[in-house]
Design a protein that fits this description.
23 helices; membrane; transmembrane; transmembrane helix
Length: 420
């Protein structure tokens, strides 16, 4: 009888914490996120980060007319002004030969029925992005019985910042990325295979370029864990480019629908490549350096994991599934990094690598853990640079304000202005 009463009291306390967290969120979302991390094993905790993603999207700063987010907003304004009907939207998607990404236009259309507000649009984007973002992070921390070690906190922060919340500014590719990583990790490690495979297959509807990523995953399902072959492929693609732009363009002419063909040609032509190179020249040196060092950190991590993998597999057999696929996908990302905008796929490979490092850290031997310790300066630099990049998009209201202030008070001051 006492045990039943104690269980009821414990349940009541947990429910009270959940109600307290919800009320606290209305006062200070950022502090509530911290409270959620402190209570990471409670059912409600992951939803706090999800709610924060929605709030973050509502307060997102659109820094200039040249960013993707501004284009999304202008599409919303045009749809709202023209009172666009669904038949027009359907024709523009399926018959124009220009667009094969369905989700963003449909979401924009739905929002345009009610408002032309960028805040509402990006809150909706945050709703979708944040769901998968929060579930991935909570999968990595929810069963930790003890406090996270310093190394794990560093790795988790790097994982969270590899595809951070402010990437909803480029909703299509980065949302497809977070959903793809979510689907792959949960499919390979957590069951519900049909449901997760369906989620993975949906990613090309968000960004067409994930058609190839989906095919690679399906290929892996059929071939299985050919770890030695994948490692050889991974190692060779680091140093040797096997991609020929003209070959890729010719293949697209023969096999792909017009809309896909237009996108492939657009992303692989020399003029677009020159535009990307010019943009790279305008980027601060530390942004380029932080990308290079984190790529090599994750590549060396995979090399060491390949050497030490037997001791990890002995404790957790599912490790081989995710590790093998990560080697295969990283090979694809290495190849794609040779075309304009293709380097974005390295971000997915990096996320998968960080996921492995965090998930299986407890099974690492001394050599693997020492490597992570030696890499601490690289991880810290990556975190600092990523945060600096985000300061242009983070509204001070997201940090110091709350939903009520954001709703009633118009503020467009980015965090970087406060620091400067």
């Amino acid at each position: 009888m006492n045990n039943v009463n104690n269980n009821n009291i414990t349940t009541q306390k947990k429910n009270n914490y959940g109600f307290f967290a919800t009320a606290m969120f209305l006062v200070s979302p950022i502090l509530t996120v911290y409270f959620a991390f402190k209570n990471k094993n409670e059912k409600w905790s992951k939803n706090i980060l999800w709610f924060f993603a929605i709030f973050f999207g509502y307060t997102l700063i659109l820094t200039s007319e040249g960013i993707d987010g501004y284009v999304y907003w202008q599409d919303l304004v045009i749809m709202h002004q023209r009172n666009t009907n669904f038949n027009y939207l359907k024709d523009s998607i399926f018959n124009s030969g220009e667009s094969v990404d369905f989700i963003a236009p449909i979401l924009t259309y739905i929002v345009s029925l009610f408002t032309n507000s960028a805040k509402v649009l990006f809150a909706v984007f945050g709703l979708i992005f944040g769901y998968f973002y929060s579930r991935l992070i909570w999968y990595l921390i929810k069963n930790e019985s003890e406090r996270l070690s310093f190394n794990k906190i560093l790795l988790l922060t790097c994982f969270a910042l590899t595809n951070p919340l402010w990437n909803i500014n480029g909703f299509r590719f980065w949302t497809a990325s977070i959903i793809f990583v979510y689907g792959v990790c949960f499919y390979l490690l957590n069951g519900q295979k049909k449901k997760k495979l369906f989620i993975i297959i949906l990613t090309p509807l968000i960004h067409f370029s994930f058609s190839a990523a989906v095919l690679i995953f399906i290929l892996y399902i059929f071939i299985g864990n050919r770890t030695f072959i994948y490692f050889a492929l991974f190692f060779s693609t680091i140093y040797y480019s096997i991609l020929n732009f003209e070959f890729l363009q010719n293949i697209s002419y023969v096999y792909l629908p017009e809309a896909y063909n237009n996108r492939v040609i657009g992303y692989t032509n020399e003029a677009y490549g020159e535009q990307v190179d010019l943009r790279k020249l305008s980027i601060n040196w530390y942004v380029s350096i932080h990308n290079i060092v984190i790529i090599w950190f994750t590549r060396i991590s995979l090399l060491l994991l390949f050497l030490f993998r037997k001791s990890i597999i002995a404790n957790n057999s599912k490790f081989e599934n995710l590790f093998a696929f990560t080697l295969l996908f990283y090979s694809y990302a290495n190849v794609m990094s040779n075309i304009p905008s293709g380097a974005r796929f390295l971000t997915i490979a990096i996320m998968l690598t960080f996921f492995i490092l965090i998930r299986y850290y407890q099974y690492f031997n001394i050599g693997m853990k020492k490597f992570i310790v030696l890499g601490t300066p690289i991880l810290i630099m990556f975190i600092i640079v990523r945060l600096r990049m985000g300061f242009d998009f983070i509204n001070i209201t997201a940090i110091f304000g709350n939903p009520m202030i954001a709703f009633f008070y118009e503020n467009t001051m980015p965090l970087i202005d406060l620091i400067k």
